[in-house]
Amino acid sequence: MPSTLSRERLAKLAVLKRTDPQAWREIVDLVLEVERRDQRQEYEQSFLAS
Amino acid sequence: MAGWGGKRPGVGRKPGIPRGPGVPGRVKARNRYRDLAERAGTEGISPLELQLRTMRELWSRAHANGEMDITLAEKACQKARDCAVFIHPKLSAIEARIETPLTMSDELLVLRLERAFDRLDRLRLPLLIEDAGDDASPAEEVADAVDVVP
User: Fold this and answer.
1) Cβ-defined contact of A32 to B123 (cutoff 8 Å)
2) How confident is residue B73, by pLDDT bands cut at 50, 70 and 90?
3) Nearest C-alpha of chain A: how many angstroms from B131?
4) What is the 3-state secondary structure of B29-44?
């Protein structure tokens, strides 16, 4: 799945992963959860539309 | 029932009793008991101290002859039980609220993500990556960024 993160943010995340793994983990968890909820909403919408 | 609705006789606050938190003469029960306890302490031996001393005396007498006098020991236990509530605080359950992205509301999640992005945007990239520009950032760096296994 393509990430909603821009390339600049992705590059910064890559740096953060090495410099501050805990902060990196927090951001990645937030991003993944937002994407998961978006996907779920799309899935539910597809049922309503059909 | 005598009637329908209206004022009922004998209900409500009794006349002459001051009302409201700012009215003089109204002393909180907590303060009243604290004053009483302080006075009891300054005037002589406090009730708690008396019970503790009695308990210790009973306990030492219960063991005076080498063997435990069960009657005295039981009396000491009674005193101990009375004092324990003032000395040993009861442990109560504490509800721990651990917040994770999974349990956050949508609004809070978005707010946290925005803050996280603000922090991320303020981060300065190392010179090599920054100079290379967006298109030239190494593919493995990008893949590495979202790889959730550190």
Assistant:
1) no
2) very high
3) 12
4) HHHHHHHHHHHHHHHC
Contacts of A10 in chain B (CB under 8 A): 137, 141-142, 145-146
Q: Where are the domains of chain B?
A: 29-87, 106-143
Whether the complex's predicted ipTM is more than 0.85 is answered with no
Decide: B117 and A9 in contact? Cβ < 8 Å.
yes
Q: Rounded CA gap, B48 and B56, in Å? A: 12
* Token digits of residue A24: 């990196």
Q: Which residue is closest to A8 within chain B, CA to CA?
A: B134
The H or E element containing residue B129 is helix B127-132
| Mean pLDDT, residues B59-77 | 91
Disruptive mutation site among B106, B122, B144, B149 for chain A (greatest number of A CBs within 10 Å)? B144
| Cα–Cα distance measured from residue B131 to residue A12, given in angstroms and rounded to the nearest whole number | 13
pLDDT value at B110 more than 50: yes
Please say if the pLDDT value at position B33 is more than 80.
no
Instruction: Delimit the domains of chain A by residue range.
Output: 7-49
Query: Across residues B82-98, what is the average pLDDT?
Result: 81
Q: How far is B97 from chain A (nearest CA, A)?
A: 17
